[in-house]
């Protein structure tokens, strides 16, 4: 039989471990824990065939998200985002303090964007950062050409195009991905520290950042939330992640809400050979896709209204794409 003193000594290491464990759970370590879980999920992800079946199954199951009840919720959000009422100032004078803080923080975050950019040529034969993300050489030239002319770029889906943006010297850049480990990976590969990255929490993900379940939070977190922080329109939006048709539409809505003219904005969509991505062709201007390329370049028709774009988004926002 152990004495009470011995029992206390034996329990003490466990108690120390508990205290140590609690200290470890800082935001940083919690983030790393999430990364480990998601990496494990990706390693154990289904095959491409199963992934396609999973995507169709999720889209069928999530069709009820477009119910009349949810539509009204989303309509209210869209109206708040893209109308003057949503942008109006608070009548409460104390409420202006939050807006003042936003302005200050934004001015610091965007400070590097106001500097004269150091632009670099993109030479395909010398490019040594090719990935298996699906860009063809024709796509690389399309991306580099448009990024080099742009003063600002937003991307849904990080990857090789992000590194091209870094290489050609895009002054203002922001991008989002649904895989936290991939956000960290790409962030480590770019030299421009003013590039801003967002992580979209869409729940557990499988291959290519697809959500394992199509949660209601996904539509806001992935398609809209990052744009809420962007007080200015972008010259180029690149859609190469999830919810592609919805993000294509949202790009033009964001640009419009920030005062951009139709001719000021282009949206590029990767893998545009997929027919479901062309449901917007009737209200958008589709450029000629180069032979051997998989990127379509869209512009907005001058007669296209925000209402038309919102109506299309309402029909398609729940499709993972």
Look at the structure and give the mean pLDDT: 75
Widest β-sheet, arrangement of strands: 3-2-1-4-5-7-6
State the separation between the terminal residues, measured CA to CA.
Answer: 65 Å
- What is the percent of helical residues? 40-55%
The total count of strands amounts to 7
How would you spell out the order of helices and strands? HHHHHHHEHEHEHEHEEEH
Structural category: alpha/beta
Give the uncertain stretches in residue-range form.
7-49, 58-71, 77-90
Based on CA atoms alone, the radius of gyration comes out at 23 Å
Number of helical elements: 12
- Main sheet? 7 strands, mixed
Question: What is the 3D form?
Answer: globular
Give a summary of the structure in a few sentences.
With 321 residues, this protein is of the alpha/beta class. It is 48% helix and 10% strand. The protein contains twelve helices and seven strands.
If you had to describe this structure to a student in words, what would you say it looks like?
The chain is α/β, with parallel strands linked by helices. The chain has helices spanning 4-24, 27-43, 48-61, 68-82, 84-87, 96-109, 137-149, 160-168, 180-189, 217-228, 244-257, 306-316; strands spanning 152-156, 172-177, 196-199, 236-239, 266-270, 284-286, 295-300. It has a 7-stranded mixed β-sheet, with helices on both faces. Strand 6 and strand 7 (295-300) form a beta hairpin. The radius of gyration is 23 Å and the shape is globular. The relative contact order is 0.12.
